[in-house]
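chain below, 191 aa
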Amino acid sequence: MSSGKVRGAAATKEALIAAFLRLVAERGVSAVSVRDVAAAAGVNHGLVHRHFGSKDGLVRAALARSAERVHADARPGLSARSFAVLRENPLLPVVVARTCLDGPRDLLKLAAPPPARLAELVAPMRRLLAALGLDVDAHVANALGSAALLGWFVFRPLFEKGYGLPKKADKEVERLVAALDRLLSTPPHRP
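prediction:
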């Protein structure tokens, strides 16, 4: 199946990844076939195998690309930037949620920040928790913050229907995550 367009390899790979993410957000990983992805991308299914080797290779590439988009910024206090990236790519948290629920769970490590980046993210959280006198593991606090960001997009229909979200809800969240970033980037005051 071809849409008649001639694409380069990079454009074809991007089209396949984008189609895969759309389909997984709707159906889950196990319910999406290579042929489904190729049809949605408007290419022959053999191109999935050419570019990714297999469905598993496509899944890995899509999750890695998604994580790369979210975790690409090397600045500390990345909450506001992560929120902006997720708002621009609302399928990313849905795909992560579907993978958590439906599997394959062994691929979830691809959606997480690389270990060095995670250490950079947790360090300011650790300092803030200590300054506040809270005996809470910084990894737990960071995971809770990440869950809140992902959940904002995954559960948005519920929040809109049942929680009376104002029209400016995203602006409010932007203000909150910007405030969190300021807290995390400000050295704690010592008495």
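The mean pLDDT is 84. The first helix runs from residue 9 to 27.
thats it, cya
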